Amino acid sequence: MALLILGKSECPLCAQVIASGQETVATTHFIQFQAHPLWRFSDSTMHYACFQQWSQRAEFVALYNSTIGQIVWGNGTRHQMAADGVIQSVPDSGAQERAAALNTLNRRRTPLLPKR
Ligand SMILES: [Zn+2]
Known about the structure:
The N and C termini lie far apart (54 Å). The mean pLDDT is 88. The relative contact order is 0.12. 28% of the residues lie in helices and 14% in strands. It has a two-stranded antiparallel ribbon. A two-stranded antiparallel sheet has the order 3-4. By secondary structure, it is α+β, with helices and mostly antiparallel strands. It has helices at 48-53, 57-66, 93-109; strands at residues 24-26, 45-47, 77-81, 87-91. It is elongated. Bound molecules: zinc ion. Zinc ion (ZN) is lined by residues 11, 13-14, 16, 46-47, 50.
């Protein structure tokens, strides 16, 4: 997650210092390619209000969700960014399908086990 020093770190969108009590949008470093036009925003903290008015907001959100948002964490959730930049932990629907498929496989295997 981006390093934020309240009263010192600047919002990359407006170049103003982020003060205590201001709502923010922050991400981890998720754009590896330095020449990408959104690279410098991928490990930063921005004012929530600035983020809402940012012309590249939709592209940034889509890029986040197509990279970090696709990772299924150990607890079976993914981190999804909403249109306003808020990141939420959501259950991975694919995880439930995989678990159900595995259950089906295990049930099918049971009759093949040697009887004791
Ligand atoms: Zn700002």
